[in-house]
Amino acid sequence: MDYSKLIKRAFSLTLKNRLLWILGFFVGVFGFGLNLPIDSQQLSQHLNLSFQNPERAAQWVSQHLGLTLLCFILFLMVSLSLLILSVASEGGLIAAVLKLQKGKTVSLPEALNQGLRVIWRILGLRALMGLWFFFLSFLPFYLASFYLSQSAGSVNLVLILLFGFAFLYSLLYLLPLSWCAFRLFVEKGESFWEGIKKATQLVDRFFKETLLLLLLVSGIGFGLFLLMSLCYALNDALFAGLGSALMLKFGSFATLLLLLPFYLPLCLLPIVLFAFSAAFNSALITLFYLEIKNVLD
Known about the structure:
Layout: H1 3-16, H2 18-33, H3 40-46, H4 54-63, H5 65-101, H6 108-117, H7 119-150, H8 154-187, H9 192-205, H10 207-250, H11 260-292
């Protein structure tokens, strides 16, 4: 397996097709929606409500029941819409790369439509994997707490180690399996269980190769994390350091406008990096899948 060739091809496809960047951004938009920086103390003060007092919280909810229900319904609708957009974009990314690799053109609506066709299969497999990892995560913590509190002996310690090994092995096995299954759903139109069955065959046959791919994708993700952390650190330094110096020297908030030409690119750069990385990773995995799928034919 020539990984350098796959990386070059994936980079070329991603760099030349901004459509992949857009889909890559949409893949993570649901995660962005759940990570908005909200100061709960300021929010509770603004609402004249202390959530540390259950009676007062219940009283506030009863007084604003209509507003509470409306906000809850809106939150569910927005969350569901973002989730659908994210999963459809993931399938759309795969479909777009498959077509671009063949020299065909693809539009954003066409890619999203392809993703919508497999959305329930992708969500179903993710749900199964989530339940499995929850099971493997919950029991070791339970056994560990029991072991520490009861001194139950070496049996629980052995079980904790076994579950830890099972969690690691499942992570190394199921992630590549899901990658292959998603692409079988999109390219071949496989049913849910048939896609999982064929993906299992691929991972079993090319387990070492999928581990190397997983290391590559993880390394790219770690590099992206470092770059985004650097951008955030520069933003903090720019406003906390240079901004404070300008305020002390000129004594006007208007001087902070001088920093906007530097601040805005640093704010946008992590978003661009995230979108490009998501698109590149999907392209790399899809090209890898195209290399190994012939074993099923």
